[in-house]
Amino acid sequence: MTVILLFQKSPQLVPLPFQVRSTLIAYDIFQRGSTLEQYLKVAIEAARVGGEILKSYQGRFTSREKSPKDLVTDADLASQQAIQDYIFAKFPDHSFLGEESSADHCREARASERPLWVVDPLDGTANYVHNLQNYAVSVALVKGTKVLVGAVYDPTNDSMYSASANGPAMFNGRQIQSSQCTQLDQAMVACSFPAGVKRIDPEVSQFLSVLEKCQSVRRLGSAALNLCYVAAGSLDAYWVQTIQTWDVAAGYLIAERAGAKLTNVSGRDFDLWHPNVLAACTLELHHLMLACLQE
Ligand code: IPD
Ligand code: CA
Ligand code: CA
Known about the structure:
Elements: H1 2-8, E1 13-14, H2 36-57, E2 63-67, E3 70-73, H3 74-90, E4 95-98, H4 103-111, E5 116-123, H5 125-129, E6 136-143, E7 146-154, E8 159-164, E9 170-171, E10 174-176, E11 188-192, H6 202-213, E12 216-218, H7 223-232, E13 237-240, H8 245-257, E14 261-263, E15 277-280, H9 283-293
Parallel strand pairs: 4-5, 11-12, 11-13
Antiparallel strand pairs: 1-10, 2-3, 5-6, 6-7, 7-8, 8-9, 9-10, 13-15, 14-15
This protein binds D-MYO-inositol-1-phosphate and calcium ion (2 copies).
D-MYO-inositol-1-phosphate (IPD) is lined by residues 99, 120, 122-126, 192-194, 221-223, 243, 247.
């Protein structure tokens, strides 16, 4: 029910023309004059490729536990393979790191100096397995600790969220902005819990604290989409204590480019390779959320 209500609220669209700084050119830091605009196009296309695979597996996938309560399906694997093939066809000399890659492959990809595509081929696998709507594909291009472009695609609703490091955040081709909420008691807030969360884990006491102070709290099941909902103004804040780079790389950039304030949950700079996130639509709400999480 909660999820349905969320989808009924339209993203906050900003009228065209976009306030894009002059051009999206001059980022030929990688190869042969490729621009952020071109990378973003490939990220968007790749996310859509993954999304189509996920839809095609609905009703016929098999699932298993990678670790207790942490699910993976053959749709996750097929989506990742299709995304990887798509990206390598466009950029054969780039590196690729997907959630379902082997640990050895992840180490190699991270160690390489090449441009690195960081992909979650299905964020929200538990929702997908239980036929709940909230899941997505997340694709980001990373250089060191910086996210250059990101795309998050929700295939159920044909919703594409995207941004490049020097452009606006977009939802299905229209610019979006985070909301203007400045008060906790008016804020719609979401959080994520890791698989197998225990009652003594910090996110549980944080949850109780936020629950008492904010208007409503949700645990929707996709970290990538939660960040996009902050970008689009459907959520006012989101925090996650325990998360992986592929879950948040694209969503982080999209929320930031939509005007949200993002740090780690202690208020320090977000660290892409040791991520935990506090995202809030305004500085005021970020400040209040931070105090609430630290109670
Ligand atoms: C999960 C989702 C969820 C978060 C988990 C992640 P997955 O990703 O992002 O919101 O709470 O920690 O693992 O496993 O569905 O790709
Ligand atoms: Ca994920
Ligand atoms: Ca995943």
